[in-house]
Amino acid sequence: xxxxxxxxxxxxxxxxxxxxxxxxxxxxxxxxxxxxxxxxxxxxxxxxxxxxxxxxxxxxxxxxxxxxxxxxxxxxxxxxxxxxxxxxxxxxxxxxxxxxxxxxxxxxxxxxxxxxxxxxxxxxxxxxxxxxxxxxxxxxxxxxxxxxxxxxxxxxxxxxxxxxxxxxxxxxxxxxxxxxxxxxxxxxxxxx
Length: 192
Description:
- This protein is an all-alpha fold.
- It contains 9 helices and no strands.
- 36% of the residues are buried.
- Keywords: Membrane, Transmembrane, Transmembrane helix.
């Protein structure tokens, strides 16, 4: 099934749209709070389509993502019971969120950095940080470092890889996509 390749081709089309930067910022912000699709799916094709703007796109993605993370933090801090908890229950994320809470207790601010860089759903950690009343400044700093590391790495790979990277990425995107899904399932099974 070539679902990730189809999404990649769609993202390349969207990357050339005149409002692509707005879409990228919106996707980056909402992914940090609720949306399941990571901004990398737009950042990578945009950096490939316009390599001269790769660093600008990485900066935009980082800033919007951290701002979204701050919003998720505030949701967790102030509106967990009336807003977040019903959503977690509706989506069936109770066990996953309980795991996130255990990680916060065990690893503290480091878990925010790891979640910001890795394919682990960052949104769970933004809301979790607010719920656990983590200190705000360390949360923002860890988010900024983790998110910037990830998005500048993606933009840099696209910048230096060019058209050759674009075709290579298209050829392996389904393997990468399904591999990430499988890794997420294994991690959930092992640590859940």
